[in-house]
Structures are given as structure tokens and as C-alpha cells.
Amino acid sequence: MSKYLFLALFVFSTCCSQAQIFSGMTEIERAKKEGFYTYLGSEEKYAIESWKNYLKKFGRVENGKGGAIISYDTRISVISKNSFTLLSKISEENNKTKLFVSIGLGPDDYIQTGHAQFRDASSWLEDFIEILNSEEGVRKEEQKLANLTNQKVKNIKSAERLVRELEANKKQTELLTKKLEEAKLEKEKLLANQEQNKLDQKATEEALILQNQALESAKKKIKN
Fold first, then answer.
1. Spatial distance between the Cα atoms of 33 and 88, rounded to a whole number of angstroms
2. What dihedral angle (degrees, nearest 10) is formed by the CA atoms of 134, 138, 144, 147?
3. For residues 36 and 89, is the Cβ–Cβ distance under 8 A?
4. Around 85, how many Cα atoms within 13 Å sit in the side-chain half-sphere?
5. Staple partner for 93: which of 18, 98, 168, 199, CB 3.0–4.6 Å?
6. Cβ atoms of residues 35 and 111 within 8 Å
7. pLDDT tens figures, 59-118
8. Is residue 14 predicted with pLDDT exceeding 70?
9. What are phi and psi of 96, to 5 degrees?
């Protein structure tokens, strides 16, 4: 029982790991074309560049009208012994990147679900998706590296700013300390002057008393 369960899980995981490819129809080069499509896990601009590079391995690639990507004299042995023209288009649909491919092997002979070459065409397309996913993985790691590099730069700038602020704080502290020392000396000087003033007042009071006594004594001598 466990053997069959394992086999079922293996088949399920294998199916889930494969891309979902659907039959459909879209407008390419101002004409409705039959074919198949899938959704890609990458931004449109990256998908277009990667798709063109992939197609160049099999034929001559040119840009068509309205965003069409055309491969002439395409030779994919698993699909056909003869060369053929491949029409494709990558676009944004509901915030997803959609790749549509139209392969005509003859008049009104387009590869779709049920076609004898649909499985081979799907496998060929899945090879591209695997490449694109690998490239997307590299881009994500590069972005993480760039983010970390930017964070490092920010940290360094922050550290340099803190050093400058600490240096400014140190200078301000030294200036305040100097002012405090000057204020302390000024206070001591004022206190000393205050004490001297008290002594001067006392001496003056005593001198006034003595002077009044001397004045009275002098007046008495005149009366006598």
C-alpha cells in the first residue's frame, strides 16, 4: 500500500513541477493564430530577452508588428524534420507574463492540445521555462546582493556620520567644559570680591565711628 502511495505522490509532484501549457488563440501580426501558451515567472522585459536568445538556437529571429517575435527557418528536430516559421508573443495579462507560441507545420496544421507533436512542443517549451527560471533565480540572488551592498554602503555612511557627530559633540563638550571652568573661576573671583567688599564695608564703618568720635572730641575742645 505504501508503495502505491509513494508512486502516486511521485507522479503528483512530477506533474506539479511541470509548467501548465494550454491551447489557445491570439492575434499576431494582425491575424488570429492558433497555438499554445503558458505563464512565466519573470517580468516581461526579462522574458522577452531570454526567449529571443532561446529561439536564436533554432532559427533566425526578428521582431514583428505589435510585439510579435518571429523565428524563421526554425529547426527543432523533436517537433519536425522540416524547418518552419514560429510566431510568438510575450505580454502582460492580469499581472502575469504570458508567452503565446504558434507553430504551423502546414496549412491549417497548428500544434495544440491533441496534436501529435503537442507533447514534444510542450517539452521543448519547458526547457525554455527551466532556463528562464534559472536566470530569474540568478537575478533574485543578484538583487539580494545589490540590496546587501546598498545596505553596507548605508551602514558605512551612517558610521561616518556618527563619527562626525561624536567629534562635534566632543568639541562642544570641550567648549562647554572650558566655559564652565571660566565660569567657575569667575564665580570664585566674584566671591572673593564679595568678601573683600564686606571687609571694606566693616573697615569703613569702624573708620566712620572713629571719625565721629574724633569730630566730637574736636568740638568739645572749641567749647572749652
1. 10
2. -140
3. no
4. 12
5. 98
6. yes
7. 999 999 999 999 999 999 999 999 999 999 999 999 999 999 999 998 889 999 999 999
8. no
9. -125, 155
Contact at 8 Å (CB) between 88 and 67?
no
What is the tens place of the pLDDT at every residue in 126-147?
Answer: 999 999 999 999 999 999 999 9
Phi, psi values for residue 116, rounded to 5°: -60, -30
CA atoms of 117 and 121, how far apart (whole Å): 6
pLDDT digits over 156-172, tens only?
A: 999 999 999 999 999 99
Cα 3 to chain centroid, rounded: 47
Burial of 158 (0-12, 13-18, 19+ CB in 10 A): exposed
Q: How confident is the model at residue 10 (pLDDT cuts 50, 70, 90)?
A: very low
What per-residue confidence (pLDDT) applies to 19?
79
Cβ pair 126, 18 in contact under 8 A: yes
The burial of 69, by beta-carbon neighbours within 10 Å (0-12 exposed, 13-18 middle, 19 or more buried), is given as buried
Residue pair 45/136 in contact (Cβ under 8 Å)? The answer is: no
For the record, the C-alpha cell of 15 comes out as: 506533474
Q: Which amino acid is at 82?
A: N
Is residue 63 within 8 A of residue 49, CB to CB? The reply is no
Tracing cell 522574458 back to the chain, one arrives at 47
> Is residue 33 a contact partner of residue 102, using CB atoms and an 8 Å limit?
yes
3-state secondary structure (DSSP) of residue 138: helix
Query: What's the half-sphere exposure (Cβ side, CA atoms, 13 Å) at 181?
Result: 6
Element (H, E) at 196: helix 118-223
